[in-house]
Specification:
Domain 1-deoxy-D-xylulose 5-phosphate reductoisomerase C-terminal: 147-239
Distance between the termini: 59 Å
Bound molecules: NADPH dihydro-nicotinamide-adenine-dinucleotide phosphate, magnesium ion
EC number: 1.1.1.267
Strand order of the largest sheet: 4-3-2-1-5-6-7
Number of helices: 17
Keywords: Isomerase, Isoprene biosynthesis, Magnesium, Manganese, Metal-binding, NADP, Oxidoreductase
Radius of gyration: 20 Å
Catalytic activity: 2-C-methyl-D-erythritol 4-phosphate + NADP(+) = 1-deoxy-D-xylulose 5-phosphate + NADPH + H(+)
Shape: globular
Strand content: 5-15%
Pfam family, one: DXP_redisom_C
Order of helices and strands: EHEHEHEHEHEHHEHEHHHHEEEHHHHH
Number of strands: 11
């Protein structure tokens, strides 16, 4: 039977790749709900092509969307708005699969709603899991939701782990013969820049990733290695291991998407051309496999695969994320919130590239850590951290 899909963040890079896959399999999947934030014209184009039943936008965009839908004879599409609309779309009884591809903390409550409603949740929005950690995992478990990683590294790790690994007891130790997870990192566009060179890189340079084409925020995160830090935290939650069992390996070609090492000396890797359509298709169809347009890997074209240790002196964000995971509680939420503010400030040229981790470190030092006992407590910490980080941005800018 055809699966009905809700795409949170349909106008983004992951949203677009998701549509590419769905388009290849019209018999198996239909688009039920789509959401956008600023790109309304693009949203209408998507509505024309995929004919969803529901579209969600911010309240101030509702009129613009309504007019465009009417002009395109699409007035039957129901328009919902704001966070309540995102949640209603994610938990809608007609929806089977939710692609969580909103960027940042804005995706937390809709993603959590999808988990609560027992959906198949394709998780791209790593910030939501970094913030909510155990609560997201528990919510998914208690409601029989299937939380499947779309982040290419986590999808690779999932593919390399034993079957049923996620159903086993969760106590922070690797199990079923797993020794450690090797999380690969491309190293981003500034892998071999000196500290001095890093001080003057521009937003345009930071957003030009050598291997992947992605949204602006994750592109900057890839350049600072905060993306790998967030992914380290994401891996700990998804695969129920403490941070010392996740080793980051810089692999500039992005052909191996991550690895799992076993106690018998085996190391399993998942490889492929760097294209998000592969992990998206995997998460959509798991445990089956479906066709994509991604060309098969030509190993003769990639005769060299290199590996190196990350440099946390030039890229302190990775160290900050590891420390936050170790500290636990609200520290990952504070880290994430400060990073969102710092990245936005870098993109608008209020602060320099090397000041991004400074804002994060400062905020982690200022906002009190405590147990992350509820979503309300997490949202409060997120709010406080943003205020502290914004002040730090102002101080650095003046
Ligand atoms: P984009 O910036 O390309 O897209 C983000 C999407 O979220 C857009 O649809 C955007 O709407 C929407 N959005 C932005 N802000 C809000 C808000 N406040 N409320 C509701 N919706 C909002 O990002 P990506 O697609 O690159 O990334 C999405 C997520 O997936 C991120 O968490 C990222 O870390 C993760 N990810 C991305 C990968 C990639 O290759 N791109 C790889 C692995 C993970 P609009 O465009 O209309 O403004
Ligand atoms: Mg990734």
């Amino acid at each position: 039977m055809s699966q009905s899909v809700c795409i949170l963040g349909v106008t983004g890079s992951i949203g677009q790749s998701t549509l590419k896959i769905l388009q290849l399999h019209p018999e198996e999947y239909s688009v039920f709900a789509v959401t956008a934030h600023s790109r309304i014209v693009e949203l209408v184009e998507i509505c024309k092509q995929f004919r969803p039943k529901i579209a969600v936008v911010p309240l101030q965009k509702v009129d613009e969307l309504r007019q465009l839908l009417i002009a395109n004879q699409l007035s039957e599409i129901e328009i919902l708005h704001d966070e309540a609309g995102l949640i209603a779309a994610a938990e809608h009884p007609n929806v089977d699969v939710v692609m969580a591809a909103i960027v940042g903390a804005a995706g937390l409550l809709p993603t959590l709603a999808a988990a609560k409603a027992g959906k198949r949740v394709l998780l791209a929005n790593k910030e939501a899991l970094v913030m909510s950690g155990d609560i997201m995992i528990q919510t998914a478990r208690e409601n029989n939701a299937l939380l499947l990683p779309v982040d290419s590294e986590h999808n690779a790790i999932f593919q390399c782990l034993p079957q049923n690994y996620l159903q086993e007891n969760r106590n922070g130790q690797p199990k079923m013969g797993v020794k450690q997870i090797l999380l690969t990192a491309s190293g981003g566009p500034f892998l071999h820049h000196s500290l001095e060179q890093l001080q003057s890189v521009t937003p345009a340079q930071a957003c030009k990733h050598p291997n992947w084409s992605m949204g602006q925020k994750i592109s900057v995160d890839s350049a600072t290695l905060m993306n790998k830090g967030l992914e380290l935290i994401e891996a700990c939650h998804l695969f129920a291991v403490e941070e010392q069992f996740v080793t980051v390996v810089v692999h500039p070609q992005s052909i191996i998407h991550s690895m799992v090492q076993y106690v018998d000396g085996s190391t399993l890797a998942q490889m492929g051309n760097p294209d998000m359509c592969t992990p998206i298709a995997h998460a959509l169809a798991w445990p089956e496999r479906i066709q994509t347009h991604v060309p098969p890997l030509d190993l003769f074209l990639h005769s060299q695969l290199n590996f190196e240790e990350p440099d946390t002196v030039r890229f302190p964000a990775l160290k900050l994320a590891r420390q936050a995971m170790k500290a636990g509680g609200l520290a990952p939420t504070i880290l994430n919130a400060a990073n969102e503010i710092a990245v936005a400030a870098f993109l608008t040229e209020q602060i320099g590239f090397t000041q991004i981790p400074q804002v994060v470190e400062h905020t982690l030092g200022q906002v009190e850590n405590a147990a992350a006992v509820s979503i309300d407590v997490i949202l409060q910490a997120d709010h406080t951290a943003r205020i502290v980080a914004e002040k730090a941005v102002l101080n650095l800018g003046s």
